[in-house]
Amino acid sequence: MTATEPLEFEKPIVNLERQLADLRDRAADSDIDMSTEMKRIEDKLTKLKGEIYRNLSPWQRVQIARHTQRPYMLDYVEHTFDDFVELHGDRHIGEDEAMPGGFVRLEGHRVMVVGHQKGRDTKENLRRNFGSAHPEGYRKALRLMKMAEKFNLPIITLIDTPGAYPGIEAEERNIAEAIAFNLREMMMLRVPIIAVVLGEGGSGGALGIGIGDRILMMENAYYSVISPEGCAAILWKDRKYAPESASALKLSAEDLKKMEVIDEVIPEPMGGAHHDHITAAHNLKRTLIKHLHDLESIDRDALLEQRYQKFRKFGEFREKGRR
Amino acid sequence: MGIFKKRSIASLGKKKSDMPEGLWNKCPSCGAIIDEITLKQRHRVCTKCDHHFTLTAPDRISMLLDVDSFEELDPTLESTDALNFKGYTDKVKGYQKKTGLKDAVLTGRGAVLEHPVTIGVMDFRFIGASMGSAVGEKLTRAIEIATAEKRAVIIVCSSGGARMHEGILSLMQMAKTSGALARHHEAQLPYISILTHPTTGGVTASFATLGDINIAEPGCMIGFAGPRVIKETTHQNLPPDFQTAEFLLDHGLIDMIVPRSMMRERIGELLDYMLPVGKTA
Questions:
Q1: How confident is the model at residue B17 (pLDDT cuts 50, 70, 90)?
Q2: Alpha-carbon distance A118 to A131, whole Å?
Q3: Is pLDDT of B188 > 70?
Q4: Is the Cβ pair A184, B238 closer than 8 Å?
Q5: Which CATH superfamily is domain A62-312 in?
Q6: What's the rounded Cα separation, in Å, for the pair B170 and B165?
Q7: Does B246 touch chain A (CB under 8 A)?
Q8: What's the pLDDT tens digit per position in A34-68?
């Protein structure tokens, strides 16, 4: 069915699929009627898939979110949008290929898109730095978003990063300020912004292009203040407790929707977007068009007020009385 | 010049002396023995090497603000355990008892050399001054009040980063505080960020680096990623003074380094330039 590398929890499915394929081969080579047996395995397979894929644990979703065959930012740019015109550079220090961006069309809309891009192999990852952007990536993203504001184009940001790059040069060029400045400036951009977490929503590196009027997540994406491994290392003193951390952090799209941190979960094909890039891209497209349509009808002052209040309300606390 | 030795974050929480508590202090940088009264008079700066000891939020407030000008905001506000995170409620309670604080920041109205400000001071004793909902909410309210009342904002930063136990909500405090600062900025009001030892992670990547003026105390450690993580990721040796205030000044990332003894005067001098003429508290 697919040529993707199965994840550990998918192995029972793969085994059954292999059995079914064997049976089909044998049926083709002989006159014996195996249709009953085949039907039995098919039913079992459907049931098993349902059981596994409908009950994915947060940690299993993290693994899907990191799958190397998962559609990345530029795959979505290809299948969800048209006529991508890539724009390069932060105008100061360099070009960050971990953060591509440019003009795209989405049906009738002209849009500015920016996002994190990972590589599938070592060579690509040397270029893309595993989707971990440097300060120049965040500054390029802001340059393009400010251009979008100038030409009155809505902005779509596509988030997929394990985190901003923790390196010497990144610190020397003020990675923290690059992210912080984006947070402040994005809050005031006078065009609609939709942020979508495609795969990994790794902490500040994700949030650095994550301020928007809508925050959407693909079904198997995660969004978290710290990686499950990082959390486990601090709290349980051992990275092997990452599955427990993933649950405790409530980082899945489903949990974040329940907590009203995100606006909508975009469904993925059964088993994850890596099984079917096209369907995933179409689901994203449909959702983006709907939200873009809604946002474009809002008066810009009201839009900015709503965006401010959207982030203003995040937090759980208590106090005696009230000011 | 190696006057200010780099300090480790790990040493901060620990007691460093086996001397009678409250009488004598040993400087973690040069080893000088300083009596408590002298150290207090010097705002906890070493008599011998000028090492800046950690200050509590209440001490910091009395050092920076005009006498009797502080009016605390939201004194009862505290975080709840939104994620039902293992051990978090007990942890918060423990630190509340230990520090007498509700969470890792004190906020309020006040005046610095008669300039009207709202101030937020983080206290590293409280879970490494990590930012959760309480820190984010208190700072946001303080900034909003400053915007409404045309006050300057002063935030004294120190933090281990976001508060993991509050998950995504702690991350979103970065956005919330930065949003409040966006409006304060738009109102053309001054914000001075004071970076103290240590300022890292999500706090550095939000309000700490957004000051019109970013000031650091001598020798303090300021960074986004921790040195260990950077070393593990890059397999490079870190420069000797990496992520110190002096390193940041050399690289153009902060406006100035100001020793503690001069901090209040410096803030006053800056606000003289930045606030509209003739406005006093």
A1: very low
A2: 4
A3: yes
A4: no
A5: 2-enoyl-CoA Hydratase; Chain A, domain 1 (3.90.226.10)
A6: 8
A7: no
A8: 888 889 999 999 999 999 999 999 999 999 999 99
